[in-house]
Amino acid sequence: xxxxxxxxxxxxxxxxxxxxxxxxxxxxxxxxxxxxxxxxxxxxxxxxxxxxxxxxxxxxxxxxxxxxxxxxxxxxxxxxxxxxxxxxxxxxxxxxxxxxxxxxxxxxxxxxxxxxxxxxxxxxxxxxxxxxxxxxxxxxxxxxxxxxxxxxxxxxxxxxxxxxxxxxxxxxxxxxxxxxxxxxxxxxxxxxxxxxxxxxxxxxxxxxxxxxxxxxxxxxxxxxxxxxxxxxxxxxxxxxxxxxxxxxxxxxxxxxxxxxxxxxxxxxxxxxxxxxxxxxxxxxxxxxxxxxxxxxxxxxxxxxxxxxxxxxxxxxxxxxxxxxxxxxxxxxxxxxxxxxxxxx
Length: 344
Ligand code: SF4
Ligand code: SF4
Description:
Layout: H1 2-23, H2 27-39, E1 51-54, H3 83-93, E2 99-102, H4 114-123, E3 127-132, H5 140-147, E4 152-158, H6 162-169, H7 174-188, E5 195-202, H8 210-220, E6 224-229, H9 253-256, H10 268-271, E7 272-275, E8 280-282, E9 295-296, H11 302-306, H12 309-319, E10 340-341
Parallel strand pairs: 1-2, 1-7, 2-3, 3-4, 4-5, 5-6
Antiparallel strand pairs: 6-10, 7-8, 8-9
The chain binds iron/sulfur cluster (2 copies).
């Protein structure tokens, strides 16, 4: 009973804080006006992005076969974002920023300076989320995560048995990740953050495992179970449709159509940007290999990049009769919520 009450409090704290973040510093107005520019097909939104995805590192300790970072298909150099790059970026841009996700490619907690980055973002009253594979360098990481002030943590366990985990992730760490989830929840104790979610990745092996996954989440007492449809794109070595579930409701829309959906419905480049570990700004996380660089925060400011010629060209390509931006072909963002199965 007390545990359910606490779980509800953790959720309530998250939602209230999000509400506060968006209602303060004129952020809601800024987002709304930028969205109006999108709605009226204007390529130059007047306010800076409210959502930023930051890649602390593109180095990983797993070798997931469906991920370009894990299967060796990323061609860009590997490295970590230094704290000073992040700090200098945030010092210039925090006014409008509401939400930072520290994840793109790679395992964020492998960056030695990640906790300094979280602390600094939290001190600026920004909602901070991390997506991790849950395989930590040492036991101290669990305590550091809880102490960091992080608002939300998504752990990609992705499978519910050792064999499938090892097959897709390249290492036999299923039990270790499960144990880290338990340790995190224990360490959080009665604190109200971080909100902790556990993810299952739907591939053919997993399509009948949703009830077992929900059961696992209940036993581990995580705050939320997330079930995500797999992306089996051009970047993935195992893009064999054999990895897609046979049940169509577990497959992303664009794999069901011969002609991939390329429309103009994505508003993301009007409200968000993605920054790679080396400072390159790209339109979104779908540009995994950093092919469409819009600028670099080490040599320029985000306000110059945000409405610079390359960003304007990218948005204009999206606004034409057809979205002609090449990375959008591999994307199902218009049905973002359709990429998840609602379970709780
Ligand atoms: S843990 Fe994440 S970043 Fe690392 S290889 Fe797997 S999917 Fe890619
Ligand atoms: S790739 Fe997807 S998320 Fe990125 S800009 Fe294109 S449609 Fe939007």
